[in-house]
């Protein structure tokens, strides 16, 4: 584990930014990597200082940042507004930009136009979009336009209502086969990697035998080539909902509430601010002109 400073700390530790080609290289070398969300400059800069290799500016910001109860309301403008500061804050980390619902579903032309806009206006490294075989033509069109595409299959939050909400997918032989066929379709369409969300481990294991691109798993078991989590979930900051696959690696919400309460208590007691936190210079202040 290292704490990276830019460009190099005293131990010489420099974080090298992954490229699109590195995704396949890591997989081929059996080297796992980690992937988290960020939606703002400060969080991005914290991730950049960590060992985590990949950031997603996910449309989950609808729920985590904006308080909606699903991901569907966010727009291209919302996504661009959040991706820009993340790219700025994480120069040593690969940044994926999530295409919001309705920005690519209509036609290949719409998909290419909005993917191009996302790359041009934010400087992110690839776009991510939800869908399998049904989105293969959109993926191929974006890839043909020269933009790397990360696909997202299994539980796809933008269309979750059509399969009964946020639930594990691929629990029957037919649905498991469909998800694996979706993985094959997005690979054939040119996606360089695929997020697989909320499926039984055996689906991921079989998928791994049938595709060669990296599987980025979120609730997809240990066989995925990379593990993905929402930062606010893994740090125990978001309290509305905890999926089964989320492990809390720290308790940042509790630490923040404790810090805020300490500030409140010291404000009321007068303990804060001591002279350490004050501008102590004595200034000879003349009387007011009208006195
Ligand atoms: O928007 C998001 O955060 C995602 C992850 C759950 C993969 O798509």
Describe the structure.
The chain contains ten helices and eight strands. With 291 residues, it is α/β, with parallel strands linked by helices. The chain has one domain: Phosphoenolpyruvate-binding domains (TIM Barrel, Alpha-Beta Barrel), CATH 3.20.20. It has an eight-stranded parallel β-barrel with strand order 1-2-3-4-5-6-7-8, surrounded by five helices. The radius of gyration is 23 Å and the shape is elongated. The mean pLDDT is 95. Residues 37, 56, 58-60, 98, 152, 195, 197, 218, 228, 230 line the site of 3-methyl-2-oxobutanoic acid.
Question: Which helices and strands appear, and what pairs or packs with what?
Answer:
Elements: H1 20-28, E1 33-37, H2 41-49, E2 54-57, H3 61-64, H4 76-89, E3 94-98, H5 108-122, E4 126-130, H6 136-144, E5 149-154, H7 173-189, E6 193-197, H8 201-210, E7 215-218, E8 226-229, H9 231-234, H10 252-269
Helix pairs in contact: 2-4, 4-5, 5-6, 6-7, 7-8
Bound molecules: 3-methyl-2-oxobutanoic acid.
Residues 37, 56, 58-60, 98, 152, 195, 197, 218, 228, 230 line the site of 3-methyl-2-oxobutanoic acid.
Short summary of the structure?
The chain is of the alpha/beta class and 291 residues long. 37% of the residues lie in helices and 13% in strands.
């Amino acid at each position: 584990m290292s704490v990276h400073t830019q460009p190099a700390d005293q131990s010489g530790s420099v974080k090298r930014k992954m490229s699109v080609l590195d995704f396949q290289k890591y997989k081929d070398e059996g080297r796992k990597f980690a992937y988290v969300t960020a939606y703002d400059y400060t969080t991005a800069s914290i991730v950049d200082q960590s060992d985590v290799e990949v950031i997603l500016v996910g449309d989950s910001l609808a729920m985590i940042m904006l308080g909606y109860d699903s991901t569907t309301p966010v727009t291209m403008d919302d996504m661009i507004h959040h991706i820009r500061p993340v790219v700025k804050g994480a120069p040593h980390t690969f940044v994926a930009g999530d295409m919001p619902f309705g920005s690519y579903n209509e036609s290949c032309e719409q998909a290419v136009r909005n993917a191009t806009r996302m790359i041009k206006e934010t400087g992110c490294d690839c776009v991510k979009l939800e869908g399998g075989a049904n989105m293969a033509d959109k993926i191929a069109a974006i890839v043909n336009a020269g933009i790397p595409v990360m696909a997202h299959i299994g539980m796809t939050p933008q269309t979750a209502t059509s399969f009964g909400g946020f639930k594990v997918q691929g629990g029957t032989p037919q649905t498991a086969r469909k998800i694996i066929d979706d993985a094959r379709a997005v690979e054939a369409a040119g996606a360089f990697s695929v997020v697989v969300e909320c499926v039984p481990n055996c689906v991921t294991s079989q998928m791994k035998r049938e595709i060669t691109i990296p599987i980025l798993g979120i609730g997809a078991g240990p066989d995925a080539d990379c593990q993905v989590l929402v930062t606010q979930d893994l740090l125990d900051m978001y309290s509305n909902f905890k999926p089964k696959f989320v492990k809390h690696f720290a308790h940042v919400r509790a630490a923040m509430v404790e810090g805020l309460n300490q500030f409140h208590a010291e404000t009321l007691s007068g303990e804060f601010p001591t002279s350490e936190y004050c501008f102590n210079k004595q200034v000879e202040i003349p009387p007011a002109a009208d006195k």
